[in-house]
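re: the backbone from monday

yeah here it is again, tokenized this time
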């Protein structure tokens, strides 16, 4: 990996020592750490794991969920996305309320507790077909339909909604806070350069970092438990990667509402403009996870989606030995969460990447001295924080968790 400017081993060692002691890393220090190679890379991971263990112990969490792709129509055209569709595409789909409930009930029977809603961003603004679909469902906007779908899931099942609706206004989030226990929006990257022609976010107006950072900040003002993170390997520089993490850290320091930072690795997909774009290596992913851990400190929940790293066949046979090795590297890099895993539904954003089996994951954790523990869509430390749940949702959640905030 090319290093930025002059790399000082003395400065690297000083930055690592500072982070290990719980010091607050600055931009140049984080950039030095993000360039670690060889023995320095090993030392970086060791420091990140030490900080994780100090704050989070040896517990690794996950959420048992159903994935509900409410609609895959989207007005954005990201160069790496296969989820979004245009009207007329045979794979274009907007779920009906009955379909949403059928999946939610099936997940409930399997012990799922989270209803993850993902959807395209504001398709009604681009497509008259979506406006007609929404009108037939009794709604004017996709976010209005999402709110109704969440309310129905709450009314008719025990699942707790988590929503990933894209860029939102304060009014949107106030309405959705009444029917969801947490929300999410990936920053991906804070650089507007990636919006230029030929970039991954060209023709994706809702990927402008100003809009996404404003949404995340507004969620903080509204005291919404929030999930966000970065997408690495899409053409960003190391400086842009660090700056993105620092922007998120600043928002969390201002509002204290970010419950989880996801470090997601780009995966090339056929039939996209970025199908030949090189993917980040496991070493690069682990390096970024470790720097995120040291930037955010011991208290933050740091996640790397396991199905985007582990080579897990969709047919019988189970994960390969390489899957176990990759898992071990990410644990060494300081993660403490594997995100949502479904025993029922696939990852509709990355349909070619199966989830790991929860039983296998539990065995892998135990073999490495960790306990795999289920959490809700809202992290335990946010369950009883004043104002982060509406009274109705708080009563519902409190009745289902231990004193620590984990599901009973």
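seq for it, each position gets an aa:
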């Amino acid at each position: 990996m090319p290093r930025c400017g002059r790399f000082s081993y003395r400065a690297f060692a000083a930055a690592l020592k500072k982070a290990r002691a719980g010091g607050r890393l600055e931009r140049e220090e984080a950039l030095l750490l993000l360039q670690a190679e060889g023995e320095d890379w090993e030392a970086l991971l060791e420091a990140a794991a030490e900080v994780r263990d100090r704050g989070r112990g040896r517990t690794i969490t996950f959420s048992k969920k159903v994935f509900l792709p409410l609609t895959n129509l989207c007005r954005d055209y990201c160069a790496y996305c296969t989820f979004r569709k245009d009207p007329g595409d045979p794979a274009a789909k907007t779920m009906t309320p009955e379909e949403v409930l059928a999946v939610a009930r099936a997940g409930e029977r399997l012990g799922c507790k989270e209803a993850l809603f993902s959807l395209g961003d504001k398709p009604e603004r681009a497509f008259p077909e979506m406006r007609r679909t929404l009108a037939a469902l009794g709604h004017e906007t996709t976010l209005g339909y999402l709110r109704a779908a969440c309310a129905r899931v709450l009314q008719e099942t025990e699942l707790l909604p988590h929503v990933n609706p894209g860029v939102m206004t304060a009014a949107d989030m106030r309405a959705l806070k009444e029917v969801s226990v947490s929300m999410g929006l990936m920053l991906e990257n804070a650089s507007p350069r990636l919006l230029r022609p030929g970039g991954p976010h060209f023709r994706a107006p809702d990927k402008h970092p100003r809009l996404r950072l404003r949404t995340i900040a507004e969620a903080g003002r509204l005291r919404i438990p929030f999930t966000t993170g970065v997408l690495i390997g899409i053409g960003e520089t190391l400086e842009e990667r660090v700056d993105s993490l620092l922007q998120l850290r600043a928002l969390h320091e201002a509002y204290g509402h970010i419950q989880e930072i996801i470090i997601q690795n780009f995966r090339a997909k056929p039939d996209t403009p970025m199908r030949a774009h090189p993917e980040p290596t496991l070493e690069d992913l682990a390096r970024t996870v470790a720097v995120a851990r040291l930037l955010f400190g011991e208290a933050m929940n740091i996640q790397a989606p396991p199905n985007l790293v582990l080579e897990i066949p969709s047919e019988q046979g189970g994960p390969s030995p390489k899957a176990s090795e990759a898992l071990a590297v990410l644990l060494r890099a300081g993660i403490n969460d594997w995100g949502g895993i479904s025993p029922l539904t696939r990852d509709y954003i990355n349909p070619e990447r199966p989830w790991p089996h929860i039983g296998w994951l539990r065995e892998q954790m135990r073999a490495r001295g960790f306990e795999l523990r289920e959490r809700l869509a809202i992290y335990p430390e946010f369950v009883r924080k004043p104002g982060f749940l509406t009274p109705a949702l708080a009563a519902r959640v409190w009745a289902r968790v231990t004193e620590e905030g984990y599901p009973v």
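Residues 311 and 322 are 7 Å apart (CA to CA). The domain at 53-398 is CATH 3.20.20.70 (TIM Barrel).
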